[in-house]
Amino acid sequence: MCVVQTTARFGFGFQTAYLAVAYFDRFLGRRRIDNGTAWATRLLSTACLSVAAKMEERRVPPLSEMQIEGYAFDSNAVQRMELLLLDTLQWRTNCVTPFDYLSYFRSKFQCEESPHKAIDFIFAAIDAINLTTCRSFAVAAAAILAASSEIYSRESLETKMSTTSLFQSFSEKEHVFSCYSIMTQDLPKNTMTPKRLPSSEASENHSGVTVAIDSASFSSSRTKRRRLRLPDTH
Question: What angle do helix axes 38-56 and 14-30 make, rounded to 10 degrees?
């Protein structure tokens, strides 16, 4: 995903990358971008990354530097999208993530592999996992099991999950199995964990095409279609 790749360019950590993707999925769970407009999707991605960085990073670049895949948006347009994002999420930006559970499952499942390997599996599969339906502890459990040296069947996964009281329902166990299956497939290597870059690399200028935003249409997935306009910037 472009958000994950962009975090490395800015020198952001993996927690920021994950939150940005989670915000993106949660937004689209409540609203949809009409006609799948490419620039509108990039604008939303930019806003998600900006809000996530403000939650996690000590230094956040100005909005004028926030560019994703060659798009350079007007700062006012990004700000308006940030407000739309926050309103859609009801300002609930402090999320529990799978990283909060990795140490617990690493101990519970007696996995000796480095937790960084589990983090790699999370980001390798992040495009294929719906973060709005899979609970964070299920993703964490699947990542720890995927990072181990063993290959697990459905039955052996259920045996592992029986050692903790977190997995009570059938759906939670199915989410772990689904995430584990995705993580252990042959996935593109370029989606692995974003690494922090030296400050000189993180601040490197990124050339792109400046896009003037006239308006964007978003609709609520829970109510009657409602059009919301972004500000004119010309």
Answer: 130
Which pLDDT score is estimated for 1?
A: 54
Residues 6+ apart with CB under 8 A from 124: 183, 187, 188, 189, 191, 192
Same fold for the pair 2-95+204-220 and 98-191: yes
| pLDDT attached to residue 72 | 75
Cβ–Cβ < 8 Å for 72, 211? yes
For residue 229, the SS3 value is coil
CATH top class, domain 2-95+204-220:
mainly alpha
- Whole-prediction pTM value? 0.73
The three-point CA angle 50-51-54 to 5° equals: 90
Helical ranges in 195-234 per DSSP H: 199-202
Query: In the chain, what are the domain boundaries?
Result: 2-95+204-220, 98-191
Predicted local confidence at residue 113, as pLDDT: 80
Tell me, rounded to whole angstroms, the distance of Cα 220 from its chain centroid.
Answer: 21
Q: Calculate the alpha carbon distances from 172 to 1, 20, 139, 175, 197 in Å.
A: 26, 24, 10, 5, 36
pLDDT tens sequence across 38-71: 788 888 989 999 999 999 999 888 888 877 766 6
According to CATH, what is the number of the domain 98-191?
1.10.472
Residues of the chain falling short of pLDDT 70: 1, 34-36, 69-71, 186-234
Residue 98 confidence (pLDDT):
92
DSSP code string of 116-175: HHHHHHHHHTTTTS-TTTS-HHHHHHHHHHHHSSS---HHHHHHHHTTSTT--SHHHHHH
